[in-house]
């Protein structure tokens, strides 16, 4: 037995213990001090809460929430430029204090470029994403880009058109992937922009870039929209029953000199279909994926975070049946093993952060909390 482990258990050092051929080996499992779980869009409208909870089969989550202690709640401005959980993740990188408070934009362009192996010319860069704008009765609505399923061929063709338009005004546009491009625009550095998930489903006029050079941006956006209107690519998409790609969304502005090369606590995520904002935040935190609870608990990070971001897409699409299905699927893969790890001491303290579009709710639960038999397992805390 290792000398320090023996001393921890109150045993003398190795050299003072007689060697016994078949002595029973003593072990000590210190476990993980704390694990945090972030579950965006798990809070539900009060008027739907009872019906939704009736369809959930998540007894382990009910045990964790029912016997946990509510330790805080943070409301967000409904017109904030990012979602509450996006600001929360940004706060992990900046030590809980984000550079813009909880109302500014997310400076992620340079981090996404670095994650994709793209070297940027010094200056100020934005993320530019091809989008679908839905025409409502008296306004335009931004549609979740996950629904577009843009192919590389489609994106390259549309990118070439947009790139020439930006080049005409002296701005560099780089291709990162089918759904994400990078724009060099030093003179637009003061623009305040909104993350796509924050803007989706809303009147885009409220969420458009704001600032002294906003008119210049709107002019170029309109140019792109006119060139893409009735484009052959969109005719082909319409024939397949797909939404047209008819606009671009500007956000995530950041200066190249602001990229932080320090290492932060690793964030473990199971999400493989996250938004560009989530992926950028994870890139800034140098996150990597965990395949399950055992892999997560094998981490040497002092205080790791598990992000389960599979519900966001369902809420933006207002698909409650899929929301139920995805949350139920988390029971076997995540909630039941996490509950067992807490019971057996592999995790000592477990924090759960629940969220929706305008608030976060924080729950703490420990092994001693689970022994409070008088507190019934319950999902009632999921009602916003």
Write a structural description.
This protein has 384 residues and is an alpha/beta fold. The strands form three sheets. A seven-stranded mixed sheet has the order 2-13-12-1-11-9-10. Strands 6-7-3-8 form a four-stranded antiparallel sheet, with helices on both faces. Strand 4 and strand 5 form a beta hairpin. Helix 5 crosses helix 11. The radius of gyration is 24 Å and the shape is globular. The N terminus is likely disordered.
Sequence-ordered SSE layout with sheet pairings:
Blueprint: H1 3-8, E1 32-39, H2 46-55, H3 59-67, E2 69-75, H4 84-93, H5 109-115, E3 124-131, E4 133-135, E5 140-142, H6 152-167, E6 172-177, E7 180-184, H7 196-199, H8 204-207, H9 214-228, H10 232-239, E8 247-255, E9 267-269, H11 276-284, E10 288-289, H12 293-297, E11 305-307, H13 312-316, H14 320-343, E12 347-356, E13 359-366, H15 367-370
Parallel strand pairs: 1-11, 1-12, 9-10, 9-11
Antiparallel strand pairs: 2-13, 3-7, 3-8, 4-5, 6-7, 12-13
Quick rundown:
By secondary structure, the chain is of the alpha/beta class. The chain is 35% helix and 20% strand. The chain is built from 15 helices and 13 strands.
